[in-house]
């Protein structure tokens, strides 16, 4: 069984978005500053920020006073929003979204299982950038992370 993976693009995008969320009062941030602050390749980050701009999550301005900033308040942007912007749907099966699937016979109950998985992922990744940047995760999410079993590989 393959494990769920968060791509490097998604990880870098979320980290960049958190850097922008934390600097909301500092004005636009240069891509170089974001890359340096998060230990991300500047060239790779530029492409990610471009996708986030096209996706409506960040805005940018060129020039000496230019840089990037969040297009909306960090409270209204979820981690899921960022991941979808750079990687597409959060959960897919064979490249298809679970509601588009159909199973028969003993596999019929797989569909509700995939839907439940998608709902769980949405719940966890529905945390806002503001919550993560402030280290103020919702109690349910924090409780899951506090479970020692969550940190081990079965």
UniProtKB/TrEMBL annotation:
Family annotation (PANTHER family): HTH-TYPE TRANSCRIPTIONAL REGULATOR ISCR, WINGED HELIX-TURN-HELIX TRANSCRIPTIONAL REGULATOR, RRF2 FAMILY
Which Pfam families does this UniProt record tie to the protein?
Rrf2
State what protein this is by name.
Rrf2 family transcriptional regulator
Matching InterPro entries: Tscrpt_reg_Rrf2, WH-like_DNA-bd_sf, WH_DNA-bd_sf
Signal peptide span per the entry? none
Write out the entry's keywords from A to Z. DNA-binding
The highest taxon in the source lineage is Bacteria
């Amino acid at each position: 069984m393959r494990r769920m993976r968060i791509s490097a693009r998604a990880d870098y995008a979320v980290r960049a978005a958190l850097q922008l969320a934390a600097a909301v009062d500092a004005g636009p941030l240069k891509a170089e500053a974001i890359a340096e602050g998060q230990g991300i390749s500047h060239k790779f980050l530029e492409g990610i920020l471009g996708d986030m701009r096209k996706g409506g999550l960040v805005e940018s301005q060129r020039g000496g006073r230019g840089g990037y900033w969040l297009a909306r308040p960090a409270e209204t942007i979820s981690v899921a929003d960022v991941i979808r912007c750079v990687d597409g749907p959060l959960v897919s099966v064979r490249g298809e979204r679970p509601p588009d699937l159909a199973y028969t016979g003993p596999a019929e109950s797989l569909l509700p299982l995939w839907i439940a998985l998608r709902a769980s992922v949405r719940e966890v990744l529905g945390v806002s950038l503001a919550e993560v940047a402030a280290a103020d995760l919702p109690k349910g999410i924090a409780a899951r992370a506090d479970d020692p079993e969550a940190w081990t590989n079965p």
